């Protein structure tokens, strides 16, 4: 069973201010957020597991460039993409654990630098635990909780506690 830790409202605001990619449109923002590094194998694994089991689940994927040797550039490319959903899917569905840079997304050297909000989130998530993927969600009492892991057990536990899922 995954462990959950509470995130205070100020830290949740940091997450919500960072640019993300919501896969399923809803009238309100997704209650489930996944902080991931585009070069991280476990983020790619979680993405594939979630897409297979819950293709219509509204989840906001929030990239941070903290681990890989070109993670910052890849995060900037994702966020600047004209079709961020397609870019996210390309990167995480084509992930190669044996490649130095993992995902299938080609870095755009012309991409603008990371937004300040994304940089702030990258620093904050290192303090929150420093792991990706980090699943952050609002529970039925309105609290923001975080956990980690790349398995359906984690997602099922999150869904059992999430506010509107």
Describe this structure in words.
The protein is an alpha+beta fold. It has one domain: Glutaredoxin (3-Layer(aba) Sandwich), CATH 3.40.30. It is 39% helix and 15% strand. It has six helices and six strands. A six-stranded mixed beta sheet has the order 1-6-5-3-4-2, with helices on both faces. Helix 1 packs across helix 5. The protein is globular and about 45 Å long. The chain starts with a strand and ends with a helix.
**Shape by Cα distribution:** globular
Poorly predicted regions are none
Please work out how many helical segments DSSP would assign.
6
Average pLDDT? 87
Give the helix/strand layout:
Layout: E1 5-7, H1 9-17, E2 21-22, E3 32-36, H2 41-53, E4 59-63, H3 71-80, H4 84-93, H5 116-128, E5 134-138, E6 144-148, H6 152-161
Parallel strand pairs: 3-4
Antiparallel strand pairs: 1-6, 2-4, 3-5, 5-6
Concise synopsis of the structure shown:
With 165 residues, this protein is α+β, with helices and mostly antiparallel strands. It is built from six helices and six strands.
Which labels suit this protein?
alpha+beta; 6-stranded mixed sheet; globular; 165 residues; 39% helix; single chain; Glutaredoxin
């Amino acid at each position: 069973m995954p462990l959950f830790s509470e995130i205070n409202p100020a830290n949740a605001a940091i997450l919500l201010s960072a640019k993300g990619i919501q896969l399923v449109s809803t009238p309100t923002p997704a209650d489930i957020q996944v902080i991931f590094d585009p070069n991280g194998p476990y983020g790619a694994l979680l993405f594939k597991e979630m897409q297979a089991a819950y293709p219509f689940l509204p989840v906001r994927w929030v990239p941070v460039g903290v681990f890989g040797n070109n993670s910052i550039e890849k995060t900037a490319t994702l966020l600047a993409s004209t079709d961020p959903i397609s870019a996210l899917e390309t990167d995480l569905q084509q992930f190669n654990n044996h490649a130095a840079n993992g995902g299938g997304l080609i870095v755009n050297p012309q991409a603008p630098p990371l937004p300040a909000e994304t940089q702030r989130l990258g620093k904050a998530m290192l303090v929150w635990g420093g792991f990706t993927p980090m699943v952050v969600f609002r529970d039925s009492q309105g609290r923001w909780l975080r956990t980690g892991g790349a398995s359906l057990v984690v997602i099922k536990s999150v869904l059992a506690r999430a506010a509107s899922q």
